[in-house]
């Protein structure tokens, strides 16, 4: 088992916002964390990577290949991030550095974790830009984030997360800010890359229709607690909790139809 989360608790200024969450992500598994806004999905992801905001604390257990991550020093966590575990954030406009070219940002983790020189890093950036299907990779890596479209910025964020071929990718609502057409392209890209590299995936979303395209199992959250979890096909056909039933009603109002899971 690659990732084991047990009784994870996150408190912000003394208020419990994640309350005893437990789930597993096996090698090659694709697991969704789904719930409405404020359910604790994103905070769970940030706690796993040691990226909680100031004033927030985590307790419980998060084990990666048997190694406890809760309480691990920042330097040790930084060595894991980007190398063994990658993350794609919801809004690339804020995740990307506006004063650095996207090529430098794509290559940064490879320079840090693999010790690549400037020329090799530049070549890696072009290769990764091509891998995420950015147009004219050799030229686009010279641009700055504000010169790209929203969909292109999200592809850059994906390239950054995957440059070192991590074993686990955490994708935090990576398609929320995109229109339907671009959203479908990014989902297709993510699914293809995850399958091709044999990565595990934790995909965070509030949209069951989106989750049905990329995950095989789901953990449903409400108010910081797990209310239901299991194979996505079961949750889609026989949801047990009211929150899952509500998410299913919302999903069937979209272009997705039940039975559309991959």
The general outline is globular
Biggest β-sheet description: 6 strands, mixed
- Helix/strand/pairing class, anyone? alpha/beta
How is the largest sheet built, in terms of strand order?
6-7-8-3-9-10
Mean pLDDT: 89
Terminal CA distance: 23 Å
Pick out the low-confidence regions. Answer: 255-262
Strand tally: 10
Task: Give helix % range.
Answer: 25-40%
The oligomerization state is single chain
Rg (C-alpha, Å): 18 Å
Q: Name the helix and strand elements from N-terminus to C-terminus, one letter apiece.
A: EEEHEEHEHHHHHEHEHEEHH
Number of helices: 11
Q: How much of the polypeptide forms β-strand, as a percent range?
A: 15-25%
Can you walk me through this structure?
The protein is built from eleven helices and ten strands. The chain is α/β, with parallel strands linked by helices. A hairpin with a 2-residue loop joins strand 1 (3-12) and strand 2. Residues 255-262 have low confidence and may be disordered. Belongs to the ABC transporter superfamily.
Task: For the structure shown, list the relevant keywords.
single chain, four-stranded antiparallel beta sheet, ABC_Ni/Peptide_Import, alpha/beta, 262 residues, six-stranded mixed beta sheet, disordered C terminus
